Amino acid sequence: MLRRIWSNSSLGALAEVVLLFTPAVPAYLWLWPAVSGTRWLTSVQVGVYLYFLAGSLAIGLRRWSLSQLGLNRRGILLSLACGLAFILGRTLVLLGTNL
Protein backbone atom coordinates (compact mmCIF):
# COMPACT_ATOMS: atom_id res chain seq x y z
CA MET A 1 0.00 0.00 0.00
CA LEU A 2 2.70 2.51 1.00
CA ARG A 3 4.84 1.54 -1.99
CA ARG A 4 1.91 2.33 -4.29
CA ILE A 5 1.40 5.73 -2.62
CA TRP A 6 5.10 6.62 -2.95
CA SER A 7 5.16 5.52 -6.60
CA ASN A 8 2.38 7.97 -7.53
CA SER A 9 4.28 11.24 -7.82
CA SER A 10 1.50 13.57 -6.63
CA LEU A 11 0.57 11.42 -3.63
CA GLY A 12 4.24 10.89 -2.84
CA ALA A 13 4.89 14.63 -2.87
CA LEU A 14 1.87 15.20 -0.64
CA ALA A 15 3.09 12.51 1.78
CA GLU A 16 6.55 14.12 1.90
CA VAL A 17 5.10 17.55 2.68
CA VAL A 18 2.88 16.07 5.40
CA LEU A 19 5.92 14.29 6.84
CA LEU A 20 7.90 17.54 6.78
CA PHE A 21 5.23 19.58 8.57
CA THR A 22 3.93 16.92 11.01
CA PRO A 23 6.20 18.13 13.86
CA ALA A 24 4.60 21.57 13.57
CA VAL A 25 1.38 20.38 15.24
CA PRO A 26 2.91 19.54 18.66
CA ALA A 27 5.26 22.49 18.29
CA TYR A 28 2.37 24.94 18.03
CA LEU A 29 0.38 23.23 20.76
CA TRP A 30 3.11 22.61 23.32
CA LEU A 31 6.63 23.67 22.36
CA TRP A 32 6.22 27.34 21.44
CA PRO A 33 4.09 28.26 24.47
CA ALA A 34 6.50 26.37 26.73
CA VAL A 35 9.64 28.15 25.48
CA SER A 36 8.26 31.62 24.75
CA GLY A 37 10.01 34.14 26.95
CA THR A 38 12.68 31.68 28.12
CA ARG A 39 16.33 31.34 27.23
CA TRP A 40 15.53 28.24 25.12
CA LEU A 41 13.54 30.13 22.49
CA THR A 42 16.47 30.92 20.18
CA SER A 43 17.88 27.40 20.42
CA VAL A 44 14.50 25.87 19.63
CA GLN A 45 13.99 28.19 16.67
CA VAL A 46 17.41 27.32 15.25
CA GLY A 47 16.61 23.62 15.66
CA VAL A 48 13.29 24.01 13.87
CA TYR A 49 14.92 25.90 11.00
CA LEU A 50 17.61 23.22 10.67
CA TYR A 51 14.97 20.47 10.71
CA PHE A 52 13.03 22.21 7.95
CA LEU A 53 16.12 22.83 5.83
CA ALA A 54 17.34 19.25 6.24
CA GLY A 55 13.90 17.89 5.40
CA SER A 56 13.60 20.14 2.35
CA LEU A 57 17.03 19.04 1.16
CA ALA A 58 16.20 15.37 1.71
CA ILE A 59 12.95 15.73 -0.25
CA GLY A 60 14.71 17.63 -3.02
CA LEU A 61 17.50 15.05 -3.31
CA ARG A 62 14.93 12.31 -3.96
CA ARG A 63 14.17 13.91 -7.33
CA TRP A 64 17.12 16.12 -8.25
CA SER A 65 20.88 16.33 -7.78
CA LEU A 66 22.67 18.98 -5.72
CA SER A 67 23.61 20.78 -8.92
CA GLN A 68 19.99 20.91 -10.09
CA LEU A 69 18.93 22.26 -6.69
CA GLY A 70 21.37 25.15 -7.11
CA LEU A 71 24.00 23.89 -4.67
CA ASN A 72 26.96 24.26 -7.02
CA ARG A 73 29.53 26.97 -7.60
CA ARG A 74 27.27 28.97 -9.86
CA GLY A 75 24.07 28.57 -7.86
CA ILE A 76 25.45 28.80 -4.33
CA LEU A 77 26.16 32.53 -4.64
CA LEU A 78 22.61 33.15 -5.81
CA SER A 79 21.27 31.00 -2.96
CA LEU A 80 23.36 32.87 -0.41
CA ALA A 81 22.29 36.24 -1.82
CA CYS A 82 18.60 35.25 -1.63
CA GLY A 83 19.11 33.96 1.92
CA LEU A 84 20.83 37.18 2.93
CA ALA A 85 17.99 39.23 1.41
CA PHE A 86 15.45 37.11 3.32
CA ILE A 87 17.31 37.52 6.63
CA LEU A 88 17.76 41.24 6.05
CA GLY A 89 14.05 41.64 5.24
CA ARG A 90 13.05 39.64 8.32
CA THR A 91 15.35 41.73 10.49
CA LEU A 92 13.94 44.97 9.10
CA VAL A 93 10.37 43.80 9.79
CA LEU A 94 11.31 42.84 13.36
CA LEU A 95 13.02 46.18 13.93
CA GLY A 96 10.14 48.08 12.34
CA THR A 97 7.53 46.43 14.56
CA ASN A 98 9.70 46.47 17.71
CA LEU A 99 9.47 42.72 18.19
Cα-atom Rg, whole angstroms? Answer: 17 Å
- Uncertain runs are none
Largest sheet: none
Portion of residues within helices: over 70%
User: What sequence of helices (H) and strands (E) makes up the elements?
Assistant: HHHHH
Number of helices: 5
Supply the helix-strand structural class.
mainly alpha
What does this structure look like?
The structure is a single chain. With 99 residues, the protein is mainly α. The chain has two domains: 1-63, no CATH class; 66-99. It is 79% helix and 0% strand. The protein contains five helices and no strands. The longest helix is centred in the last third of the chain and has 24 residues, at 73-96. It is flat. 0% of the residues are buried. The mean pLDDT is 82.
How does the SSE layout of this entry go?
Layout: H1 2-7, H2 9-21, H3 24-35, H4 41-63, H5 73-96
Write a short abstract of this structure.
By secondary structure, the chain is mainly alpha-helical. Helices cover 79% and strands 0% of the residues. The protein has helices at residues 2-7, 9-21, 24-35, 41-63, 73-96.
